[in-house]
Structure formats: C-alpha cells, structure tokens
Design goal:
There is one protein chain. With about 400 residues, this protein is an alpha+beta fold. The chain folds into three domains: about 120 residues, Butyryl-Coa Dehydrogenase, subunit A, domain 1, CATH 1.10.540; about 110 residues, Butyryl-CoA Dehydrogenase, subunit A, domain 2; about 140 residues, Butyryl-CoA Dehydrogenase, subunit A, domain 3, CATH 1.20.140.10. Strand 2 and strand 3 form a beta hairpin. The termini are far apart. The N terminus is likely disordered.
Length: about 400
C-alpha cells in the first residue's frame, strides 16, 4: 500500500489510499477521508462559502491522495474500486457539513468524469483521464437546459457536423463546476428528428472559442460550489472530441444517472448523520425550564426515530451500491435511494433546526447552512417525483 502522505501534513498522522475493494480497504478509506476532512476542510470551509468556490489546490491535494480516482483503472492513476467506494466517499464528504464542497468533488468524480471513463476512446483516456484523476483538470457535465432537466430528451442544444468539426449552439443551465471546470462533457442533438437516439456527448475544453460562461448563478445553498449558465455560440470542437458513438449520448446519460444517484443519496445520509450528531450535542447542553432539552421525551424520541431512519437510508445505499458492484440491474433500488434519502435529509434538517431554537436560524450555526444545502437534494440529480415514477414502473 502506497504512502501518500503529502508534505503539508504534520507528522502525527498519515493519509493512505487503499487499492483493492475489501472490508479493510473501505474501513481504511473511511478513516483516511475523515482525517482529511477534519484537518483540511473544516478549518477552511466557511471561507469557501464566502468566495463561492473550492480552491483548485484543494482538489489537487485530493487527487494526490487518490480520492479523485477511486473507481478508475490503476493504469491511469486510479484505485480500481467499485460503487461501494463511491458511496463511502460521498457519505464522508457529506459529513463535512459543507454541501458545496462535497458536490464540487462528487460532480468531478462521479457525475462528470465517468462519461470519459465509460465512453472515451484510448486517445481520449490517455489524453485526459490521468489529469482528471490527479485533480489537474476539473470536470463538469452539461446536460440540463433552461427548458430541460430530468426530461433529457427535450434538450435543444445542437451539434452540426462540418467537415472535421462539430458546431455546437445552445445553452446549459445549473452547471455545477461550470465556472472553473477545464473539461465539459456536453450533451447535444446531432439529429433533432431522432428523439433520444439523436443525442450525442462531446468533450469541450475550457477556452474553446464559442464556449461562454454566460453568468455564475447565485444559490440558496451549496454556496461554496460554483454553478453557471453556459452558452454555445458556433462553438467548434474537433470531431475527435465526440465522446463515444454519435447518437448514443442519451444512453450514456441514463447509465451515469445510476452512479450519480448513489453518490447523492449517500452524501445526503452523511449530511443527515452529521446534523444529528451536532443536534445531539446541542440538546444535551442547552437548558430550558430547568433541564436539558435532551430530558424532554418528545425531543429525544424524535431524534431516536430520525437516527433509525438515517441508518435505514445508509443501508439502502449500501444495498444499491453492492448490486451495482455485482453488475446487477439496480435502477429500482438506485431510484429508491435518491427518492428516500433526498426527502429524508430535508426532514432531518427541519427537525434539527427546530431543536436548535433561535440559534438554528443564525448564520453562525452550522445547522443553518446545512438546512439550506439540503433543500436541493430532493431536486438535483432527479427530482423525487421522477424517481417515484421510475420505481412505480418496476413494481
């Protein structure tokens, strides 16, 4: 096992990244991630909330420690692990309490770059994937548009073939990492009459003429995550930047939704577990009417039920990730993860904020930030209503 202790770490602890998916591997990965979050993220997260993005050097540090390539082949610098590692990474990042930081990383590792890993040509993999895993090139996926979110078939961005290039025109909305990404994986229609079979994916590099960051977007939560509206105005990309086969983009997006939803569900359960931890500490010390809030039966029983529900959510995530790792069809289970965990984290944050009283409404309280961050969990990556329809089809 390689020692990946960086030079900025004090000698009293090490960061080590495992290389095979075993119980011991996952245990070590969890311990390593938790130390990294405690020592590198918690002291700086509030500053990132103010500036609106996670500094590039933090992502490079995570790359040097192997956190950005857990599921990618070792030949490119990855660790060759499976979906259980995705779930673990997402849960521990969620426990940081900084949702913007967590989603910045997870979009790069488990929502955008998998498009390259799954469909990239040998030349594309050799040219881009090592830098992606190292954190030298940060990625974003550009599918959502002003009039098309979960309904991917309705996207309007077009890609017209002209000789050795494709010319992209259109707009993308709510693109996480959209301001600071180096590589964008863009969905566009190469055949408008072919419906879902007319959608293709493209690699568009930052700085390509015709690619414009139209505006950064101001959000309720996830404030340390940069989010942007993108515009493509006669944006010319080489034909070699077609990602996978022409007309197969819809299927690539659907495939990657499974990975994305495992990550988001697990992140939500990490956030919920951390909120309960913070709230338990608060109610055991905060006194009202002569006794700690913890002594109020209604409060402690509600927290006990929430703890049981969060554990159920964690187990559901583990089950779905295990099915994925075995290569089994798990669309129903992954849709359950996204629907259940996205709704549950919001219930947890509501009650935890309530039990903080007036303090929970103050910006200085971590639970206030976590309350705002959680709201999008039932929306992004597939709204709860869409997920329930996916489940219903398979009952």
């Amino acid at each position: 096992m390689k020692d990946l202790t960086p030079d900025y770490v004090t000698p009293d602890y090490d960061y080590v990244t495992p290389t095979t998916t075993t119980c011991d591997t996952l245990r070590l990965l969890r311990e390593t991630l938790r130390r990294f979050v405690e020592n590198e993220i918690l002291p700086r997260g509030s500053a990132w909330e103010q500036q609106g993005f996670v500094p590039r050097e933090v992502l490079r540090k995570m790359g040097s420690l192997g956190f950005l390539g857990l599921r990618y082949p070792e030949r490119y610098g990855g660790s060759g692990l499976d979906a259980r590692a995705t779930a673990l990474l997402a849960e521990e990042l969620g426990r940081s309490s900084f949702g913007g930081f967590a989603v910045t990383v997870l979009v790069h590792t488990d929502m955008a770059s998998p498009h390259l890993a799954h469909a990239g040509s040998p030349a594309q993999l050799d040219g881009y994937l090592p830098a992606v895993i190292a954190g030298e090139k940060i990625t974003a996926v550009a599918v959502t548009e002003p009039d098309a979110g979960s309904d991917v078939r309705s996207i309007r961005t077009t890609a017209r073939r002209e000789g050795g290039e494709y010319v992209l025109n259109g707009a993308k909305m709510y693109i996480t990492n959209g301001v600071h990404a180096d590589l964008y994986f863009v969905a566009a229609k190469t055949d408008a009459a072919a419906g879902s079979k007319g959608i293709s994916m493209f690699i568009v590099e930052k700085g390509t003429p015709g690619l414009l960051v139209a505006r950064p977007l101001d959000k309720l939560g996830w404030r340390s995550s940069d989010t942007a509206e993108l515009a493509f105005q006669d944006c010319r990309v080489p034909a070699a930047n077609l990602l996978g086969e022409e007309g197969r983009g819809f299927y690539a997006i659907m495939r990657n939704f499974q990975n994305e939803r495992i990550a988001l569900g697990s992140m939500a359960m990490g956030e919920a577990a951390k909120a309960l931890e913070i709230t338990l500490e608060y109610v055991k010390t905060r006194k009202a009417f002569g006794a700690a809030l913890w002594n109020k039966q209604a409060i402690r029983q509600r927290l006990a039920m929430l703890a049981a529900q969060v554990e159920a959510g964690r187990q559901l995530v583990t089950h779905a990730a295990s099915l994925d790792a075995e290569g089994r069809d798990c669309v129903k289970e992954v849709s359950m993860v996204k629907a259940y965990c996205g709704e549950l984290v919001n219930r947890v944050m509501y009650d935890c904020t309530q039990f903080h009283g007036g303090f929970g409404y103050m910006r200085e309280a971590p639970i206030e930030r976590m309350f705002r961050d959680a709201r999008v969990q039932s929306i992004g990556g597939g709204a709860t209503e869409v997920m329930l329809e996916e489940i219903a089809k398979r009952l």
